[in-house]
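Entry for the shared binder. Reason: the reviewer on the internal report wants the predicted structure included alongside the sequence.
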Amino acid sequence: MKKIGVAVIGAGFWGRNHARNLSGLSETELLAVCDISLERAKAVAEQFDIDAYTDSRKLLKRRDIEAVTICTWSTKLASEALRALKAGKHVLVEKPMANTVRQARKLVDLAQKKERLLTVGFLMRFIPGVQRIKESIDKGEIGTLVCATAKRVSRWPERIGDVGVVKDLAIHDIDIMRYLFNQDPIAVYAKTGALKHKFEDYAQIMLTFKEGKTAFIESNWLTPYKIRKLIVTGSEAIMNLDYLTQEVTVETAHQTLTPRYEHIEELKLELQHFSNCIINNKEPTITGIDGLKALQIAEAALKSAGKCTIIKLNQ
């Protein structure tokens, strides 16, 4: 099988993880890395014996590079993705995909025009525990889905950041709620604030869906230790997922079960899926539209917090 030539744009912590996984996949051949820091780019290039660039425009001229993953600062994601799509490359762009809804919509439109695959890095969907919960909901094993609660909190020191906790952290759970409920929320109400950071560093978000169903999301950069949890409540059972331990529990009226799963790194699964979609010319599980809708909801949450009011969402 012919391997897909790939490159990583952005050689920070997450970009290095992309490079590590792409170098080990049977579907891909990692050819290059790009970063504004020559030192960072060279460090990754030397580790994987690939080419280093500091200007993505030069990298994108290469015909042997068919796809790129983009792991830059949030405010640079859209411009790099736009450049890659214009060059005819398939693109996996990290969340939040773009800094504004307008930028995100432009990416979606260009990908369609260029007939290139565009997917967004919502890797939570690839966690086996999330897949198990989704399967249980779809099969009716927990009865009627009533509500879901996500808690994604941890200590985060002041840094040179470009977005707040809503677009950086909560957007993961916004996407997960759309995925689990299999629909878009009809309204959002949020409270946010900034205690120690330039942008908002804590947020509580409530999403309302049709038929009175609700989702609650708590995110912050303030809590002294990390918590990553998802609780899904149905009429017949409650399912809990600890993202950190990957443990799932299923609580019914009569018993509590703890299914066991083989742990596979979710980033590896995400990048493998991206590659296989290119090879087989299939639409990815997470599309550019998914990224656009999650960003729309995130911006509505920020607007809600700013105006202290419920924001209705277009369907």
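Summary line for the report: The first strand starts at residue 4 and ends at 9.
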